[in-house]
Write a structure and sequence with these properties.
The protein is about 45% helix and about 15% strand. By secondary structure, the protein is of the alpha/beta class. The protein has a single domain, classed as Phosphotransferase system, mannose-type IIA component (Rossmann fold, 3-Layer(aba) Sandwich). Strand 1 (about 5-10), helix 1 (about 10-25) and strand 2 form a beta-alpha-beta unit. Helix 2 packs across helix 3 and helix 4 packs antiparallel against helix 5 (about 110-120). GO terms for molecular function: kinase activity.
Length: about 130
């Protein structure tokens, strides 16, 4: 099963994990999160992330989901990418995470594709319900 690590600023990852557990209503043993604060040294964060990768990787690979591209969490994730073994996506949102978890039994390249489409399809402009007007 593909391992998933959420690498985000402060407590965003914790909140995403909590919401995913609520929505999926099951244990998520292949999901970890790594919080990054301004006080953290990037090399220390990379070391902790590598430990998590080793913990989760059963040979299926690991997907890193990070919040905003260009921030410390995504810069750390980028340093960890190993094509076909450790992949990374910036712009994590709850629809992306749920889709990723739902397909984590598939091959890593499938999980990456499903994560991106889940994230994109989860962003919608909501119009007023015409029945309420």
């Amino acid at each position: 099963m593909v391992g998933i690590i959420i690498v985000t600023h402060v407590s965003l990852g914790e909140a995403l994990v909590s919401c995913a557990q609520h929505i999926m209503a099951r244990d998520l043993p292949n999901l970890l999160q790594l919080s990054v604060s301004k006080a953290d040294e990037p090399d220390d964060v990379v070391r902790r992330a590598n430990e998590m990768i080793s913990q989760l990787d059963d040979g299926s690979g690991v997907l890193l989901l990070t919040d905003i591209y260009g921030g410390t969490p995504s810069n750390v994730a980028q340093r960890l990418v190993r094509a076909g073994k450790v992949e990374a996506i910036a712009g994590v949102n709850l629809p992306m995470l749920v889709r990723t978890l739902s397909y984590s039994h598939q091959a890593l390249e499938v999980v990456v594709s499903k994560a991106i489409t889940g994230g994109l399809e989860g962003v919608l402009y909501m119009l007023p319900d015409s029945a309420q007007e």
